[in-house]
Amino acid sequence: MNYKVGVVGLGVMGSNLAINMERNGFPVAAYDLDAAKTRAFVDGPAKGRNVVGANSPEELMRCLERPRRILIMVPAGNAVDSAIEHLKSHLEPGDILMDGGNSLFTDTERRSRSLEAEGFHFLGTGVSGGEKGALWGPAIMPGGQREAYDAVAPILRAIAARSEDGEPCVEYMGPRGAGHYVKMVHNGIEYGDMQLIAEAYDLMHCGLGLQASELHEIFRDWNTRELKSYLIEITAAIFAVKDDVTGHPTVDIILDEAQQKGTGKWASQNALDIGAPIPTINAAVESRILSAMKTERVAASRVLRGPSTRFTGDSKALIAAIEQAVYASKITSYAQGLALMRIASQEYNYGLKLGEIAKIWRAGCIIRATLLGEIMSAYERDPALANLLLDPVFRDAIESRQQAWRTVVQTAVELGIPVLAMSASLAYYDAYRSERLPANLTQAQRDYFGAHTYRRLDRDGTFHTEWNSK
Question: Using 50, 70 and 90 to split pLDDT, how confident is the model at 422?
């Protein structure tokens, strides 16, 4: 028989997506450059399923119906180019390649143009949800030729997560690298969310002396209200787990060194390139970099002094304020990520629809949260919304939490507990709402040392002052 879809790369994500496809009625032809992986998959997780293993690109192509639909699941970077080259000579015009890894969107742009010139279709397909999501339903962000998406849409819609209203969490993002761009921003927002949660934990653990069992209860409680989300849910679960060897909470024995795969850093780099301020995401990236400086930090802790980290005020009031501050910071972080995509959509001619992006992030992906339903509604009210903070619902949400937010940041500063992301969120809010910023002085300085000129408030035109004339 002709198989509906091919999966190339049978690591955990590729294998789980293949099983997901087969379970939803799409027979799979599976191939890995390592023949042992192909055999292990076919004889293991895929045994008894409508899955066939291919031992070569030629055999893979013979198994697939035309136009061939092939999902590549290999590590981002050179491995994707190698996989494409490995398959390309066996393709026919009109065949569709999908890259489901975390590729840099500029690489996807290059591959899309090159393959289209040779008569092939290419979809840069962002997939979020981890191993479990791949198996049972991820959020999927495909970009490329519209006709290619239409040809694979039945497969992607079948395997995607379903939100509470039953809608599949997949939608066409736009041309060329649009899908991987959206996935990159998703991961940047994810970095911000995780850092905000970490800072809340640090304030309660170091500032209030709360232990893992108490933190478990607090985060579990938070997950019943406005902060309800996958990341808050798993944070609560983490605090309940104890180490088998020591009996201590596992989180307490993990080295404080957060790693990264690069997608958050890419978001920060691109935001600088196109002139989009995303300080919360930047702070989250920088926090991971600082965490990696463990040896230096240990040495610095012995010579650099700060205040006592123990809070002596009303603990219950501070915990309640921290919940409000996390939510306000989270709104601000999402506002930054969405504004980044709005600017990028204009820069790259992607035609991104921010409301639809929020819609497909409601389930399956790592940043799934109750908040996304409200964001979707905001863009239904105003599809041209320049910034989420300007929506009346979110404006009021921030306003009602503003004092708690400021109290928490102030308390952290007084205790010497770093809150890079939370304070960056607040500073962004204050800068965005300011009619006048001190950039007039910055521009005067630039004109002083470099004759860069300036504009005036009281008349049109460009001006220069001879600052050294007296």
Answer: very high
List b or e across 79-96, with b for residues whose CB sees 16 or more CB atoms inside 10 angstroms: ebeebbebbeeebeeebb
Q: Give 300's contacts (C-beta < 8 A, 6+ positions apart).
A: none
44 exposed, middle or buried (CB, 10 Å; 0-12, 13-18, 19+)? exposed
DSSP 335: H
Distance CA 324, CA 327 (A): 5
Residue 64's DSSP bridge partners are: 3
Q: How far apart are CA 308 and CA 288, in angstroms?
A: 24
The 3-state DSSP class for residue 246 equals coil
Query: CB of 20 within 8 A of CB of 137?
Result: yes
CA neighbor of 260 nearest in space, from 290, 299, 234, 231: 290
Read off the DSSP letter of residue 252: G
User: Residues 267, 185: contact at Cβ < 8 Å?
Assistant: yes
Contact 367, 190 (CB under 8 A): yes
pLDDT in tens, 8-57: 999 999 999 999 999 999 999 999 999 999 999 999 999 999 999 999 99
Taking the C-alpha atoms of residue 169 and residue 138, their distance in angstroms, rounded to an integer, is 7
Core vs surface per residue 435-446: b (16+ CB within 10 A) or e: eeeeeeeeeeee
Amino acid at the residue 395 = R
Rounded to an integer, what distance in angstroms lies between the CA atom of residue 46 and that of residue 37? 12
For residue 30, what are the β-bridge partners? 7, 53
Phi, psi of 52 (to 5 degrees): -120, 140
Quote the tokens at residue 358. 């929020």
State the burial class of residue 244 (Cβ atoms within 10 Å of its Cβ: 0-12, 13-18, 19+).
exposed
Query: Integer distance in angstroms from the first to the last C-alpha of the chain?
Result: 88
pLDDT digits (tens, 9 = 90+) for 315-341: 999 999 999 999 999 999 999 999 999
Summarize the chain as % helix, strand, coil (round to 5).
55, 10, 35
Q: How far is CA 197 from the centre of its chain?
A: 15
CA distances from 173 to 123, 141, 179 (A): 10, 6, 5
Q: What are phi and psi of 224, to 5 degrees?
A: -95, -5
- Catalytic residue ranges: 183, 190
Torsion of CA 367, 370, 374, 375, to 10 degrees: 0
Integer Cα distance of 314 and 334 in angstroms: 30
- Kindly list the strands in the beta sheet with 5-8, ordered across the sheet, starting from the edge strand earlier in the chain: 51-53, 28-31, 5-8, 69-72, 96-99, 121-128, 139-144
